């Protein structure tokens, strides 16, 4: 029974997908800016959800909290990759220069 409780106790944050080639080629500067905002919102969500709660206690009982730490780390890695790709797309499309002139 303890394994049943601990299996569900690890928090799951999801992942941010990498940009597809199609997205890199077709996204406008405005769409890139919107995606930046979404990723930053996802980061805030992960930070908020990773705070100590009842699932943290159950996770600690099951694996000393290691599962939650790994899950948070992987979620944040996915955001880092996506932000890097968005920054590169922004650079290639000269979005920052466009924003300065508008």
Number of strands: 0
Distance between the termini: 61 Å
In terms of DSSP E residues, the strand content is: under 5%
Helix content: over 70%
Query: What is the string of helix and strand elements?
Result: HHHHHH
Radius of gyration: 18 Å
Number of helices: 6
C-alpha geometry: elongated
Task: Return residue spans where pLDDT drops below 50 for at least 5 consecutive residues.
Answer: 1-7
Q: Largest sheet, if any? A: none
Average per-residue pLDDT, rounded, comes to 79
Q: How does the helix and strand content classify structurally?
A: mainly alpha
Task: Tell me the count of domains.
Answer: 1
Which helices and strands, and how do they pair?
Blueprint: H1 2-7, H2 21-26, H3 29-49, H4 54-63, H5 66-92, H6 95-101
Describe what you observe in this structure:
The chain is mainly alpha-helical. It has one domain (2-101). The chain is built from six helices and no strands. α3 runs antiparallel to α5 (66-92). The longest helix is centred in the last third of the chain and has 27 residues, at 66-92. It is elongated. The model is unreliable at 1-7 (pLDDT under 50).
């Amino acid at each position: 029974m303890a394994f049943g409780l601990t299996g569900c106790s690890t928090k799951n944050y999801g992942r941010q997908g990498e940009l597809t080639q199609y997205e890199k080629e077709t996204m406008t500067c405005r769409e890139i800016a919107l995606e930046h905002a979404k990723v930053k919102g996802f980061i805030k969500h992960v930070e908020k959800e990773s705070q100590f709660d009842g699932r943290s206690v159950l996770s600690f009982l099951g694996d000393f909290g290691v599962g939650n730490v790994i899950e948070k780390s992987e979620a944040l890695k996915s955001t880092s990759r996506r932000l890097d790709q968005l920054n590169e797309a922004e650079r290639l499309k000269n979005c920052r220069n466009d924003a300065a002139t508008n």
